[in-house]
Structure formats: C-alpha cells, structure tokens
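Hey, quick one: can you model this chain's 3D structure?
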Amino acid sequence: MKELVVNISEKIIRHSVSQQEDTIVATIKEAIQLAVKSDEFQIQINPQDLESLEQQKKEIIDTVNGLDNIIFHADSSIERGGCKLESTCCTVDASLTSQIEIIRDSVMEDDNS
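Sure thing. Here's the predicted structure for all 113 residues.
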C-alpha cells in the first residue's frame, strides 16, 4: 500500500510540474531559503525552464535578503521543475528525483505508533 501511495504521489508531482511554470520558481525560492546565506548562487536547471527563469530572475533575487546574483546553468539531467543550487558555502539538491526520494523515505518509514 505504501508503494502505491508513493507511486501515485510521484505521478501527481511530475504531472503538476509539467503543467505549471511557477513550480520551478517556488522550488528555487525554497532551495535558496534552505541554503546557507550567500550573496550569489549557481543554479542548475532544465533547459526548458531557463527562458522563464531568466525573465523572473530579478523577482527571485528581490525576495531573498542579501542575495546579489543568481546564475542559471542549463542542465538536461535536471528534470523540469527541479534544480540543484550551489554556493561557496553549500549545495542544495532540489531535483524532482531527490524530492520524491524524500517522500518515499518518509512514507516507507515504520511508524511504531
């Protein structure tokens, strides 16, 4: 049953990401918030997300205190809607595969309650 829940969740997440451009912006903002403070981030994203993000770059920078610049790099190994964020201080893997794996681990955990 747990495997079914994870599989259904994965299908919903992947479908949602393919239908909504705003998902990648939200993912990047969340990844930046999780990261250690830095004034610049290198962000690897799917090439199909690049144009939309370049147009929203200023908005993303303006929402994070102390952030001066973000540099987007197209990476076809990153699924649409996900990203990998790097700074001099840390790396945040917010790829869809990573996020789904976290969900899978959480659902599959034995809860002894």
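One thing worth noting: The CA atoms of residues 7 and 31 lie 24 Å apart.
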